[in-house]
Each structure stands twice: as C-alpha cells, then as structure tokens.
Amino acid sequence: MSADAVFLNACRGLPTARIPVWLMRQAGRYLPAYRELRRSYDLLTMIRTPELAAQVTLQPLAEFTLDAAIIFSDILPPLEGMGLELSFVSGKGPVIGNPIERSYDIDLLAAPPATEVMAPTLEAIRLVKHELKGRGTPLIGFAGAPFTLASYAVEGGGSRSYSRVKSLMYREPSAWKRLMTKLVTVQTDYLLRQVDAGADALQVFDSFVGLALGPDDYERYVAPYNRVLFAALVEREVPVIHYSGGTGAYLETVAASGGDVLSVDWRIALDEARRRVGKQRPIQGNLDPVAMLAPWRELRAHIDMVLAKAGAEPGYIFNLGQGLLPETPLDNVKRMVDYVQRYSPAETHKQPHTRTEEGA
Ligand code: CP3
C-alpha cells in the first residue's frame, strides 16, 4: 500500500496495512539541511519564496519514510494580509507589531482573498505536488483556527494568561463576533484555495484554545465559529484534521465542532479520547515531543504506550502531541518512524509489543 493510501485511508477510518506516521513541524530546525538554508534566509523569506518553501517541505521526506508531507509555512502569515504586522524575533517567537486593542481595530482588518495574499504558499503547494508526482506521498495543507489566530492578533505574541484576548471576548462580545467571523472568512478561503492548488488533506491548528479556555467559554465563544469553518470544508473531498491543544477536559465538544480526524496532545490518553469521541472517529496523536529527546529505550517505551492505547481499530494516524522541538536528535526520528511503520496493530491485543532490536 502506498503512503498515499495508508495516510488518506486512515483519515477516512478505513483499514490500512500499517499505521501511517507524519510529524507536526517535520520541516524545521532539527534538520541540518533546514538550518543550513536558514543561514541565508529568514523564516518569512523562506515562507514567501515558493521555491524555498517547496524545498523545505521536501527536506524531511529525503531523510525519513514519512507517510505525508506538510506544506512549509506558518499559521500566522495570513494575519499580514489582514493588516497585522508580523515578524519572527529570534529567541522570542512571533510578534505582531500592531496588535488589536479596541473594537475599531477590528473594523480596519481586511479580508482579502488568499489568491492575492497567500499566493506564494499556494504556488509552493503546486511545486511540491509536481515533485511528489509518481511518489505517492500525500501533501497536507493547513491553517490556524480562529481562536488561536485571534490570540496572536490581540496578545501581540505568545501569552501565558491570554488575559487580553479573553478580556476582549468577555467585555465586547460583538467585537469578538466580528473578529472571529472575519478570521473564519479568511481561513476558510485560504484552506479551500490550498485544496484547489493540490493539497490532499487539511489540518486546522487550534493549538492554544485549551490552554486558555474552560468548557463553557469554548462552547460559547469558539465552537460556533469552528463549526462554520469545518462545515465549509465538508464540500471538498479532502479529509480535514482538527488539532486541538489542551482540550482533554471537553474533548466531546471539540469533536462535535468538526473535522474528520481529531488530533490530540499528550495530556489525554488515546484510549480515553477514543472512548469519549467514539471509536469510529479517526484520531491522530499523541507522543509527547519531549519524549523525542530521551534515550531510545525510554522513547520506545513512550511509543509503545501510545500505540497500545491507540488500539487496533482502523482510523489511527501516529503523530506527536505538538510540534517537534529543534533539539530533537535525527536518529530518534529515524528509529521512531521505522518502528511505527513496522508495527502491526493486530498484535496489540494478543501480546505486548516485543521485538528484538539491536542497541535498544
Ligand atoms: O509542520 C510543519 O513542518 C509545517 C510548518 C509549520 C510551522 N509552524 C513552521 C515554523 C507549521 C504547521 C506551524 C504551525 C504553527 N506555528 C503553530 C501551530 C502548531 C504548534 O506547533 O502548536 C503555531 C502556534 C505557530 C506559531 C509559531 N511559529 C511559533 C510560536 C514559532 C516560534 C517558536 C519556534 O518554534 O521557533 C514559530 C516559528 C516557526 N514556524 C518555525 C518553523 C519551522 C521556526 C522557524 C525558524 O526560526 O527557523
């Protein structure tokens, strides 16, 4: 079975010959080839130059036998098209130079079509699809979910308490509605245009929502917008993965807001997640990215636990619970991908995963 069939069938809950594996942030600083390119170009230049973005997308596929590629970009560049000033400050992460402070700022936000403002990424998708032709590796397009993007737009960068974005939400519900509605419009168009350009699947990243909001606020201030976004993607044939960070406490509500595949972080066990959202719902995850820094013996124990809890039901995609860290050893990625791809889920119920392995 080709990587294409393995990944896309798993996204649809169909049986596969083995478990597919890809990694969030599989293109990035842990790869020497990426670091080498980064000496010549900054992140936004790499994202805005289709040839460079395509090259970086393909870098991890040259190193590992991954079952999917993900287009190289970030969740934040669409905010620039809306009029927010984005920069990546080394050691600090993303910064918005003119964050939203009042209701009026939201009225000033533009909602231009993705073909205008995200053209380099759409072109990079076409280039990668051309390169992957005949190879059978599917390409994932992606975008940020409205809450996670709103948190950057209002906080101006990363946050611990999310106090600014939540204050706006609580104090000015009508402004919140306008902001979230604009984000849904922009992100829906961007995701659909990625499918037009050739993306075989989509992932929507709601990385921060569960770190910021409890269940009632999620239901009231976020779920209605996520439902509109995911419903608009259903018309297309491609599977949609809904990644939701830190939402184990209200996973049912998250699952009900949409997406074909639910992608969860390591703060919830996969067997519990599957029980709560229904075994027929395809699921992705959820190795702790910090386990990727551990010695192989410890890493393998973590992988075994994830695989055992994922169970033998179809509709499972191995991934991390969050992005790969820059200090991840290449050798651990290689061994992990190989180990997961050789694993037979049918065995899980009969016996613990035992396999003779040199150097273990
Ligand atoms: O997965 C992939 O390989 C595709 C590319 C991708 C990047 N960012 C590249 C990137 C994807 C899918 C993202 C998503 C993203 N970006 C998320 C959601 C997923 C997650 O990890 O939680 C978030 C919250 C962001 C915002 C972001 N971008 C932060 C907080 C940072 C700084 C922290 C860091 O890791 O440096 C970035 C920068 C960024 N995005 C890098 C890469 C490869 C590092 C770039 C560099 O300095 O070279």
Small-molecule components bound: coproporphyrinogen III
Can you list the strand order of the major beta sheet? Answer: 1-4-5-6-7-8-9
Which consecutive residue ranges, at least 5 long each, have pLDDT under 50?
348-360
- What is the first-to-last residue Cα distance? 29 Å
Q: Report mean pLDDT, rounded to a whole number.
A: 95
Number of helices: 17
Main beta sheet strand tally, sense and closure: 7 strands, parallel
| Strand residue content | 5-15%
**Bulk shape:** globular
Radius of gyration: 20 Å
| CATH architecture group name of the domain at 27-63 and 68-263 | Alpha-Beta Barrel
CATH T-level fold name of the domain at 27-63 and 68-263: TIM Barrel
Per DSSP E runs of 2 or more residues, the count of β-strands stands at: 9
How would you explain this protein's 3D organization?
- With about 350 residues, the chain is α/β, with parallel strands linked by helices.
- The chain has a domain at about 25-65 and about 70-265: TIM Barrel, CATH 3.20.20.210.
- Helices cover about 50% and strands about 10% of the residues.
- The chain has 17 helices and nine strands.
- The chain has helices at about 5-10, 30-40, 45-50, 50-65, 75-80, 105-110, 115, 120-130, 145-155, 165-170, 175-195, 210, 215-235, 250-255, 270-275, 295-310, 330-340, and strands spanning about 70, 85-90, 95, 140-145, 200-205, 240-245, 260-265, 285, 315-320.
- The strands form two sheets. It has a seven-stranded parallel beta sheet with strand order 1-4-5-6-7-8-9. A two-stranded antiparallel ribbon has the order 2-3.
- Helix 15 links the parallel strand 7 (about 260-265) and strand 8 (about 285).
- The protein is globular and about 55 Å long.
- The site of coproporphyrinogen III has 23 residues, from strand 3.
- Coproporphyrinogen III (CP3) binds next to strand 3.
